[in-house]
Amino acid sequence: MSKPQTSPAPLTLEDARRIIAAGERKADDIGQPMNIAVADAGGNLIAHVRMDGAWMGSIDISIKKAWTSRAFDISTKELATLTQSGGDFFGLHASNDGRVMIFAGGVPLKRDGVVVGAVGVSGGSGKQDHEVAEAAAKAL
Predict the structure, then answer these.
(1) How far apart are CA 114 and CA 63, in angstroms?
(2) Whole-number Å distance between alpha carbons of 33 and 73
(3) Fewer Cβ atoms within 10 A, N terminus or C terminus of the chain?
(4) Structural domain for 76, as ranges
């Protein structure tokens, strides 16, 4: 008889706070205030922070980057390259009632090799957003 497969533990608020704190440290290091969002396996927001001085308009973007990364289990930086004009996924950004963000800053969160959520970061350049998201994801 085979052993039943177990799922990794879901993300907790404590996990989300640790992920956000790591993102804040990286944002401080590069001198760019950010919005940082953490979503669970269902794409639902667990926690969000808007650092002092971060753009208000980036709140929604950071949350949507986390959702997008979880919805497709890929970084939004990678997704951006797949959705260029002429590509198979061109126009994807218009799906899901505009929730899909196709620029850098969303990174899946994995536990035991399984995606359990995602982090989304917005407030700087795409390169900065991705760097902060990767640093945040490493905290899991």
Answers:
(1) 21
(2) 26
(3) N
(4) 13-137
Query: How many independent structural domains does the chain possess?
Result: 1
Q: Is 52 a member of any domain?
A: yes
Whether 79 maps to a domain, the answer reads: yes
Instruction: Output the pTM of the full model.
Output: 0.93
Q: What is the DSSP string of 4-49?
A: PP-PPPPP-HHHHHHHHHHHHHHHHHHT---EEEEEETTS-EEEEE
CATH of the domain at 48: 3.30.450.150
Residues 73-114 have pLDDT tens digits of: 999 999 999 999 988 899 998 899 989 999 999 999 999 999
Instruction: Give me the count of residues in the chain.
Output: 140
Q: Give which of 44, 42, 41, 24 is closest to 33, Cα–Cα.
A: 24
